[in-house]
Amino acid sequence: MISGTCADRFAAVRAAFEENFDRHGEVGASVCVTLDGETVVDLWGGHLAGDDGAAWEADTMTTVFSCTKGAVALAAHVLVDRGELDLDRLVTDYWPQFGTGGKERATVRMLLDHTVGVPTWREKVPKGEVYDFDAMAERCAREGAFWEPGSRQGYHMLSFGWLIGEVMRRVSGASLGAFLREAVAVPAGADFWLGVPEAEEARVAKVIPSVPDPANPTAFTLAVRADRSSVPALALLNQGGMNPNTRECHAAEIGGGGGVGSARGLAQLYRRFGTGEAVGADTLARMGRVHGATERDATLGVAMRFGLGFMCSIDNRRRPDGWDGDSCLLSDTAFGHVGAGGSIGFCDPAERLSVGYVMNRMGDGVLLNERGQGLVDAVYRSLGYRSNASGAWRR
Length: 395
Prior knowledge:
The chain has a single domain, classed as 3-Layer(aba) Sandwich (Beta-lactamase), CATH 3.40.710.10. The chain starts with a strand and ends in a 13-residue tail after the last helix. It is about 30% helix and about 15% strand. The protein is of the alpha+beta class.
């Protein structure tokens, strides 16, 4: 049963949300859309994982994996907008210990656009260390670059959060989770946490992992299987035992993939950026630009387009090695981030729009699957957009 509200103009979003349960195996989920700063879609439905079948409620939260990167990037750009963080300064100007192993000339900008060259770690991360921010930041500092910083693009799957997060921590004087709350979540009234308080734990839904189809593997899965010492394999398999269904994980500040929130939370995080209230016009324009693109990401193995901490519209539908879950079709003015399994949070300043979608059953692919993309498509169609055949939604 679907609960919540939906403006008549966005009836197609409600229909797509219902279809996700009827046809696409959705278990529990929520979707939220704001326009001109007002909530126009706020829907939830389904049930939690487990034998009791408890209902997914209006305030249910779950781990949103790499949607966390977008939230962290929003907070980083607040520091930039305040003049406290310079994207073109060397990382070592803020974090001297980082200047080892070929990373001496790396800039802050490279931490955000996935070119800094520390997408993972060669040495096995001990189980549980992933929950220790200090230990993981130190690990990132001493890791030698996998390529010359700035020369190649490769998705920094978990390391992203400690790389930019440690710089932010040194600049702001607050922990990454605390600064994200102060700079972005609280001003927006967003139900989003990086480090969930014990009092909020009961609202966190467990995730249901996806099981790759052995007969039809993705390009990323094939890369992992082919070489367990490769960047894709290390990025996926060397994560220090991170388990998103534990209190320990929810309480930790894992800025690359441990954020917890609701669809409302994601939509509200982006709302004030979509309306231009959160930062100045130059900062907002910088946030929405594509800063790097590659035909084959060194980690994910597919074409990617990144802004400074955000994903932009990505179309891998017609690639020979493409997969239905390897694209994220937005408009050319939108920016945000997907999370493993198919969640998404983004804004589109041209439309004064923000969107959040979270769910508990993870899907295949490395970007959006048919559930999240179907909701995004319905949002744009409701706004009068006609086609995404070009690789991005257009009117």
